[in-house]
Amino acid sequence: MQVGIDQIGFYAPNQYLDLTALAQARNEDPNKYLIGIGQSEQVVIPVTQDVVTMAASAASQIITDDNRDKIAMVIFGTESGIDHSKSAAMYVKRLLQLPDQIRAIEVKQACYGATFGVQTAKDFVRANPDKQVLVIGADIARYGLNTPGEVTQGGGAVAMTIAADPQILALDDATSFRSEDVMDFWRPLYRTEALVDGRYSENIYVDFFKAVFHDYCAQTGRTIADFTALTYHLPFTKMGLKGLRAVLPEASEQQQAILKANFEASRAYNRRVGNLYTGSLYLSLISLLANAELTAGDRIGLFSYGSGAEGEFYSGTLVQDTPQLNLRNWFDAYFKQRRECSVAAYEQQFQQQLPAHDVLLDTRADDARFVLTGIRHDQRQYVDRQA
């Protein structure tokens, strides 16, 4: 029995910041961002959106009357949780009208959480092949205005159903993982912006990738020649390119050309959305499926990394030929309808945070299906405009 990713959906707000404009406002050479970081745009998150609303919007694209009653678990990976106690998955469960006979939990390990969800879901479905698991990776990346990490901000949500006989990617049993207690990135409870040791984090990322990739190959007897594409966690797309370059010498010249071309396909959407933290790897997978010429049976490697640090490498085989026209068409429409946000408007929205008291928010500028309307009696108020 094959188990893997059956459906996949994405959501991010419809405002974006052009990083050329940001570079000019910060008196930087735009190529520092466009080439040196590998980013061209980033999503701007209004105060009326949080990880719950974005997750619900992404998941609503793949949860229908056909599979709603099959969902037995919601696993929500995030490092942007909204409550110290209550899982963000519980809010999503209600907004999507999922059955009560369900587990709904939130997991955290920096950007790795959604991958833990995928692996846990895979094991669950193997034991319960008539059930499915909804796995979500949703985050808002914040480093602060006029900081070195500002160019690697962004946000959004990816939602996946893990099921038997999947339609997209059949996952292998083999996986390699590694963890070390390192301080390359962290956000204390008292801070709304993350702290990062950028150069150290890049080095740890590459070291972790090489370690888990080579361990995976040792376990399976596979080599880089067995992969049509390698996808990466992409806090910024140049980071994944550094990981790819670390193993390219192991490939033939022809294989190097294939891997480089497919990497470009896999980072096309991340360049324009920015950093999703837990969802970044899976947006890269979507970008690959939508933009590369792939064939059923092609093996795709996935490298997940969460600072602090946890890394995992696993793979799957493509179930259907691509291009995935539905994914490509969705993103074409999404990018076409987005609105550019000026640097001044971006800065204003960045500084607009929920207060620590009851408040009613103006949602008229937010056209999303799910919105945060405010706080009442210390409880976040969510609305489904289609309910």
* Shape label: globular
How much β-strand is present in the residues? 25-35%
Count of DSSP-assigned helices:
12
Structural class: alpha+beta
Q: Determine Rg (CA atoms, Å).
A: 20 Å
Give me the CATH superfamily.
Answer: Thiolase/Chalcone synthase
Kindly provide the name of the CATH class.
Alpha Beta
Task: Report the CATH architecture.
Answer: 3-Layer(aba) Sandwich
Give me the side-by-side strand order of the main sheet.
Answer: 5-4-6-7-1-8-13-12-11
Oligomer: single chain
DSSP strand tally:
17
GO biological process, one term: acetyl-CoA metabolic process
Organism: Secundilactobacillus paracollinoides
Active site: 79, 111, 233
Domain Hydroxymethylglutaryl-coenzyme A synthase C-terminal: 256-353
Summarize the structure.
This protein is of the alpha+beta class and 387 residues long.
Question: Can you describe this structure?
Answer:
The longest helix has 23 residues. The chain has a single domain, classed as Thiolase/Chalcone synthase (Peroxisomal Thiolase, Chain A, domain 1, 3-Layer(aba) Sandwich), CATH 3.40.47.10. The strands form four sheets. A nine-stranded mixed β-sheet has the order 5-4-6-7-1-8-13-12-11, sandwiched between helices. A three-stranded mixed β-sheet has the order 3-2-14. The chain has a three-stranded antiparallel β-sheet with strand order 15-16-17, with helices on one face. It has 387 residues and is α+β, with helices and mostly antiparallel strands. It has twelve helices and 17 strands. It starts with a strand and ends with a strand.
